[in-house]
Amino acid sequence: MIQATLLQLFEEHNGILTTGMANEYGINDSTLRKAVERNDIQKYCRGVYFLNDLYFDDLFMLQLKYSKGVFSHETAVMLHWLSTNYPFVYHVSFPRGYHLISAKEQNIKPYYVSANDLTSEYVDVVDSWDSNPLRVTNLEKTIVDMLRHEKAAPGIIEEMLDDYLNREDKDIKRLKDYGERFNIEDLINERVLSVVK
Fold it and tell me: Which positions fall inside the AbiEi antitoxin N-terminal domain (predicted)?
């Protein structure tokens, strides 16, 4: 039976715990390993554990496993509620030089970008459906990435732009600035600014 303290800790963290989080509360790795052996908890990957399948937040687990990754492109579109489309793979941006092993087997579409593209200026934290924090490109960076992306799902660009233009929290000034920085001013003018009221 899982210890009451450990169970409470899992519940406080939405059913997911890393060895680092456990160590902060004085629970060591061996306690977690023994709980796995007893089938009290499950191991997702090295250093990441979850209580049971009811607590399986796939996006958050993936982020814990690949802490240098930022959800981007079609996954960011979904997380920002800019489309009803749910991508078949997880779109994640990593700094160039990061070596992701077996991306295809893990259902990840990786993008390797400059580390400057993943600074706090371009990244927001949004809640997953299970209220866990996810690092995702901000609204305007998501728009820019998608307009630069040549293989987007059919219809997603139009839906994304329509939803973006109807949002209260859109930042057209920032979008124009990003358009200049990433050399897609013409696309921004043609696809977005031409229809801004």
Answer: 6-49
